[in-house]
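Re: duplicated header lines in exported structure tokens

Our pipeline writes sequence and tokens for each protein into one text file. With two proteins the header for the second block appears twice in some exports. Here is an export where it did not happen, for reference. First protein block:
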Amino acid sequence: MTQISIPAVFARGGTSKALIFHERDLPTDRELWPALFMRAMGTPDPSVRQLDGMGGGLSSLSKVCVISPPTRADADVDYLFVQIGVTEAKVSFDGNCGNMSSAIGPFAVEEGMISAVGEEAIVRIHNVNTNRIIRSQFPVHGGLPCSHGDLTIPGVAGTGAPIKLVFESPGGAATGRLLPTGNTIDLLLPEVGDPIEASIVDAANPVCFVRAADLGLTGVESPIDLDKRTDVLERLTAIGAAALALLPAKPGASTKPKRLALISMVAPSKAARTLGGEEIVAADADFAVRMISSGQPHRASPLTGAICAGVASAIAGTLVAEARGPNWSTHAIRIATPSGVLTVAADVAEDDGGWVAREGSVYRTQRRLFQGAVLVPASDVSNFLNSTIVG
């Protein structure tokens, strides 16, 4: 059987991994993209392993990024994020992946799209999904991104060069409003279980926050244990659907958001152990989150989810602000995740027009893991352009 060969890079960004394509190497007919991306990742796979593709059986490892020249004058590069399902044939172009955003600036420099002079590169990334600018700052040497450094991030073994990501004006990324419903707390009526209070905040990505205690949980459960709680996951899915129904359409958009990127349980910080067995002392964090993406408990935290949680913690009256500890500071918001404590910063203010998120920032690491071509069976996806048939 012949296969189609398409140039690609496989990279880690933060706690995620993705295939990165140049748009020029993909079919000009975008209707072909979903089938191509699913086949490349090994989706759908009822066994939840994606063995016949590049995916890793987790939502954080089943992603695609498409890079192209900028379409905005204030940007250096365009970045489209695509979330690929694992067990189901689902492809979503809604929302952004903050973790993979950390790989985009270095990719643009390594690919010669941007020249880096001196010891630091600053790349302005236009995330097409949210129409927001992300400023990426990272060290370079000899015109190329540094691959070694001393920064450690929760969920990733070893160290790497620090990448500072600044999400400019992250509020209303999907809906046009930082508080999509206008409320800090809404009462949701999910189809499964009792009514439940939630804070729906749209910063970098829309997130529905609920109290872990309202679900009979502590908020520091292991994602491995949560995976076994089908009752909890079913309940959270229903809560997400109820929250999605309340989201308004973004100004100028013809349709409302089709997907709620993240659902998060939030709780006051408690003593817990990470997936790596390290101890988190309650005083080491301001609050704890357990996030669900694509129906799966996240092993760390989606970066956009962490940015949103940080912003939400600065908005008086939200469930996140309710959970935060006494030593909380907007300059270093410490979020306890299953893989460790993640620190973000949020510039949030209240004015006559309501709450405004000016910036959200965080440090990440990234690494290019593979470069070459991804192969897709030609019998599964036909009519590709700009590709090569191999035996």
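Second protein block, exported in the same file:
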Amino acid sequence: MNAVYHYTSERHHLPAILSSGELRGRADMPGYHPLVWFSAHPFWEPTATQLRMVGGLIVPQTFEELYDVFGCVRFTLPANDVRLMDWRRACKFAGIPRRDRWAMEAVGIEVGGDPRHWLALAGPVPLEELRAERLEGGQWLPLEVTT
């Protein structure tokens, strides 16, 4: 593994990332320490495909739906970056209880994720430290980002 990736949507999240000039950590629950999540998955991290609202219900969307509607971007970090924590260590650092970690693992595995691919670091991460790529025609191509 030479690189890890922070996968995100081009038309939904990328503008805020570019305006901030950095990847910022996120904590999904009160009391958790925010982390910037990365994946060793070489094409797309299945857990990065967000849910959507349909008729008042929250339903999963497919990767193809996400790609068609929002576009896909990833930020690349060298896999040997010393700040990276594996999944368990990251959960411990963030203050995520074991029961919640197990639940997140189960949900992630159900959608095709692999906790062995999940890594994190305490952010923020300046964009200058990362390489950006856009998914076009099934290939990840360089994306020039300016902040």
